[in-house]
């Protein structure tokens, strides 16, 4: 059999037919290798992959999808790449997909609802086999369309738009309740709370958990002690500054995520105050930086990497069996006590 190479056929775009001829297998066998089918002998798969490498073959994912095959690629939409929170989730997703030999296409939406909807529409036209969406801004804009098309997707850290929406999250309400309860048991009665973006279910649940703990211990809620943020570090700084400007400032600040807690810590230090001697600070997420700053941050741990892994597994299961029952998984949170909280100072 004549061997085809890039040099022997100038300007020739290598196709799977060329790969089949080079490897001495059928067109269908090459297609099965491209789609990662289990019904290919290991030695045959190795021969096909070797032929692809020799020929410089690059698969056209969209063409394969239109032909009824799979792209072996998953789309991932994240709001940004600036926090350890996102990084840990991506690490779990990537680890799981790598085990299955599946590629990842990553898009950042910069928390813009229109951009998010456009990315989803483009990816769902055949660029990828399924979608993972982390903290989607406004999934109601497109989830109905994805569902009608039977296009597989899983939401991460979002409740979705009903019980038929596959999602992986954490016990945000319980985590916030236990964190607030911890501060109360230390003796704090004035606890400032900096919310996340209130259009997100996780932010709503954390605020609700904080309020529930205050009610349980019969502590009146002061509206001046709730500052609406957006999960970004500057909001932590601004929220803490607003609290410290009050005639009767809080003795503890609970931020809805770690990066806002770090912003709050900067504001406190800039006022010449000490943490936790003058004011306690508590966060949420337990990103890697939380244990590295000084004082080390007391926070609510979300199993972020595990959330990514489970979401990837759930999506791959939906791809293999689209008719299976939709799952909504809530992983437990855990209070991690470090150095940034202590009982409030007694008035002189």
Helix % is 40-55%
Structural classification: alpha/beta
Q: Could you give a short account of the major beta sheet?
A: 6 strands, parallel
CATH class of the largest domain: Alpha Beta
Q: If classified by CATH, what would the architecture of the largest domain be?
A: 3-Layer(aba) Sandwich
**What letter string, H or E per element, gives the SSE order?**
HHHHEHEHEHEEHEHEHEHEEHEE
Give an overview of the whole structure.
This protein is α/β, with parallel strands linked by helices and 348 residues long. It has three domains: 16-59, Orthogonal Bundle (434 Repressor (Amino-terminal Domain)); 73-170 and 304-331, Rossmann fold, CATH 3.40.50.2300; 172-303, 3-Layer(aba) Sandwich (Rossmann fold). The protein is built from twelve helices and twelve strands. A six-stranded parallel sheet has the order 2-1-3-4-5-11, with helices on both faces. A six-stranded mixed sheet has the order 7-6-8-9-10-12, with helices on both faces. Helix 1 packs across helix 3 (42-55), helix 5 runs parallel beside helix 12 and helix 10 (233-244) crosses helix 11 (258-270). The chain starts with 15 loop residues before the first helix and ends in a 12-residue tail after the last strand. 43% of the residues are buried.
């Amino acid at each position: 059999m004549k061997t085809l190479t890039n040099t022997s056929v100038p300007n020739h775009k290598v196709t799977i037919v060329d790969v089949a001829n080079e490897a001495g297998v059928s067109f269908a066998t090459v297609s099965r290798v491209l789609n990662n089918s289990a019904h290919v002998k290991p030695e045959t798969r190795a021969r096909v992959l070797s032929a692809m490498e020799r020929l410089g073959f690059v698969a056209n994912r969209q063409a394969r999808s239109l032909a009824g095959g799979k792209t072996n690629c998953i789309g991932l939409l994240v709001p940004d790449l600036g926090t350890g929170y996102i990084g840990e989730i991506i690490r779990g997703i990537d680890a799981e997909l790598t085990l299955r030999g599946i590629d990842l296409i990553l898009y950042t939406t910069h928390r813009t609802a229109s951009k998010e909807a456009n990315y989803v529409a483009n990816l769902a036209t055949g660029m990828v086999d399924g979608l993972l969406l982390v903290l989607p801004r406004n999934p109601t804009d497109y989830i109905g369309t994805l569902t009608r098309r039977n296009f597989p997707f899983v939401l991460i850290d979002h409740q979705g738009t009903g019980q038929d929406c596959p999602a992986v999250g954490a016990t945000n309400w319980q985590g916030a309740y236990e964190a607030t309860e911890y501060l109360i048991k230390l003796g704090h009665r004035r606890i400032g709370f900096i919310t996340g973006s209130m259009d997100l279910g996780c932010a709503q649940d954390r605020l609700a958990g904080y309020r529930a703990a205050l009610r349980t211990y019969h502590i009146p809620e002061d509206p001046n002690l709730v500052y609406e943020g957006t999960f970004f570090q500057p909001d932590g700084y601004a929220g803490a500054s607003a609290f410290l400007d009050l005639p009767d400032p809080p003795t503890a600040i609970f931020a809805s995520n770690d990066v806002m807690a770090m912003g709050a810590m900067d504001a406190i230090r800039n006022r010449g105050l000490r943490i936790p001697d003058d004011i306690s600070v508590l966060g949420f997420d337990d990103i890697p930086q939380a244990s590295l700053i000084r004082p080390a941050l007391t926070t609510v741990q979300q199993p972020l990497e595990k959330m990514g892994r489970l979401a990837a597994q759930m999506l791959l299961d939906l791809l293999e069996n689209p008719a299976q029952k939709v799952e909504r998984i809530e992983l437990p949170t855990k209070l991690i006590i470090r150095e940034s909280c202590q009982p409030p100072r007694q008035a002189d």
